[in-house]
């Protein structure tokens, strides 16, 4: 099986057809763009990033995320961006830092159709907490209660 056929199949599985318009960007992640050696670090950084999201604001072409600087370091956000751009070259990733502020603003934008992918990768934290019955503890972190055992 040649590479072109594999990629075409992958893109069709992702629900995005090949574009005849050269200006239209195909929205398809290529997880193989991140080396096997880098994947554990990428996974760790993604978890930290998700945990650090305080708030999400919708933009016309994506979302901006207010990140808790005590949950993820600025250098870690930069490292995550350097890996994320390998597998998702259709994204525009921007980090904003204001003076002495301890929080960061991460903006992820892209072509039409990118929002559902971003919502899946970074779900609304408040809704997720409500759906799973999470409770905020005294340290400000959320825990999901264990399922009740039947007697």
Radius of gyration: 18 Å
Alpha-carbon distance between the termini? 54 Å
Structural class: alpha+beta
Could you tell me the strand content as a percent range? 15-25%
| Envelope shape | globular
Helix content: 25-40%
Total beta-strand segments: 6
Care to describe what's here?
By secondary structure, the protein is an alpha+beta fold. It has one domain (3-138). The protein contains five helices and six strands, in the order ααββαββααββ. It has helices at residues 3-13, 39-52, 74-87, 115-121, 125-131; strands at residues 53-59, 62-67, 92-96, 104-109, 135-136, 142-143. The strands form two sheets. Strands 1-2-4-3 form a four-stranded antiparallel sheet. α2 (39-52) packs across α3 (74-87). It is globular, with a radius of gyration of 18 Å. The model is unreliable at 1-22 and 127-151 (pLDDT under 50).
Give the helices and strands, then pairings:
Layout: H1 3-13, H2 39-52, E1 53-59, E2 62-67, H3 74-87, E3 92-96, E4 104-109, H4 115-121, H5 125-131, E5 135-136, E6 142-143
Antiparallel strand pairs: 1-2, 2-4, 3-4, 5-6
Helix pairs in contact: 2-3
């Amino acid at each position: 099986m040649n590479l072109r056929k594999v990629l075409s199949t992958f893109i069709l599985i992702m629900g995005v057809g090949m574009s005849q318009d050269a200006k239209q960007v195909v929205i398809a992640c290529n997880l193989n763009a991140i080396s096997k050696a880098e994947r554990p670090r990428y996974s760790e950084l993604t978890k930290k990033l998700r945990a650090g999201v305080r708030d999400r604001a919708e933009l016309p072409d994506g979302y901006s995320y207010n990140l808790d600087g005590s949950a993820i370091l600025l250098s870690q956000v930069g490292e995550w961006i350097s890996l994320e751009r390998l597998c998702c070259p259709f994204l525009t990733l921007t980090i904003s830092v204001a003076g002495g502020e301890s929080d960061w603003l991460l903006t992820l934008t892209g072509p039409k159709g990118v929002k559902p992918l971003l919502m899946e990768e970074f779900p609304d934290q408040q809704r997720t907490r409500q759906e799973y019955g999470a409770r905020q503890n005294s340290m400000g972190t959320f825990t999901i209660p264990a399922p009740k055992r039947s007697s």
